[in-house]
Amino acid sequence: MATYTTDNFLAGVIEGFYGPPWTHAERFELFDWMARGGLNTYFYAPKDDLNQRAIWRELYSATEAEALGQLIRACQERNLRFVYALSPGLDIRYSNAAELERLQRRFAQILALGGQNFSLLFDDIPDRMDPADRQRWGSFASAQCQVVNALFRWTRERCPGARFLFCPTPYCGRMAEAQLGGEGYLATVGRELLPEIDVFWTGPEIISREITVAHAAELQTVLRRKPLIWDNLHANDYDGRRFFCGPYCGRPPELRNAVSGLLINPNTEFPLNFVAIRTLAEFVRCPGTWNSRQAYRAAMCEWLPYFATSGPPLELEDLILLGDCYYLPHEEGAEAVALFERVCALLARNPANWGNEAATVRRQIARLREFCFRLTELRHRPLFYALNRRVWELREELDLLDRYLAFKSSPGNQKAAYHPDSHLPGTYRGGMVARLQRLLVPQTDGTIAPAPVTLPGAAEPRRQTHITQ
After folding, report:
1. Which one of 124, 171, 178, 442 is separated from 398 by 20 to 30 angstroms, measured CA to CA?
2. Is 324 part of any domain?
3. Residue tagged active-site, from 7, 48, 123, 124
4. pLDDT tens across 442-467, in order?
């Protein structure tokens, strides 16, 4: 059966999250995963690498440059593109010629190390311009395009085959609709940015549940080129309590013909990204229809050996259930959904009518809780450390739920109030963040509404003034 391939299609991984950058050992393992899966591009852009964003004007030290050179050579040995990205947008003065020279010096340093592909990123920056820049260029988009075009020409003179990528300030549909970067920003980019330069896009949202062919085609009309997808489907840097190990999905195989590439920006914790990367690789190569759930189960089977323990082996079905609890931003996996719905149905009934159903649910809870506990035995300690805080929280919730069901299942307790002996106020679900999270409640229609709030000394709950988006 034929596989989908194209030489110019970028397919791979972006190290572009907020949080601790990956170690070199993790990157080398990533490169091996990518090479085995047929991916072709590694994009170096860790947001919290000082040299990438905060101190972009400074050259790398000899030690830092040697480390980057090792990454570049490791990619070349595996036939992977190494794309070097720089984010000067926080404080660049577009009208200052010295700023362009500083960008050139940084790129010259990467060229000397063997780097051949580059990117300038203007995402997540203040939506304002210096008066001198506005007077010269007229708009945010024009100023950025002039700098990017100049640096592109300079780079191509020294490396004719260089691939050059650009991330706009509004990089998703919602931002464009809000006119981030100014009115007509994307249309200006389409007109003024040189056609050889790829433009990043995350889809309708920063974390897009779906990206359709129609959406990409509409954007292509504006940008005058196919967009390059920066896919945050598995990113978790915005929510430290979660990670995502579900499959690559919500994108039809036909999307590959409507874009210039698919690059995922995944979980900050490298060991948690096996399934995301494996299923992306399968998606890029699949010849026809895409069954994401089937791909997920196959990738979980390949991931299972990483879960070797000091005791008896863990079961694949238990790993799948855990993964279903940390599936994707907009959905849980099928088995986690089934467990949750079973618990909800039980709690909606009078405990006197639970019958054997409570015991059945408690056995399922015990199975998942025991698996969470067994993860402490993992021999792959970096994997355990990446999982530990999240899985511990899951264990606590399962434990409380099990204790509640056990209490209410006992004759005589069905109408009694349950007072846990360990999940106590202040120590359980406590802290300022948890309190703030209880103030404003997301609604199913996408709005945010205040929850009833009892102020100190108040006799009755008080509802806050409604806050609109």
Report:
1. 442
2. no
3. 124
4. 888 889 899 886 665 554 444 333 32
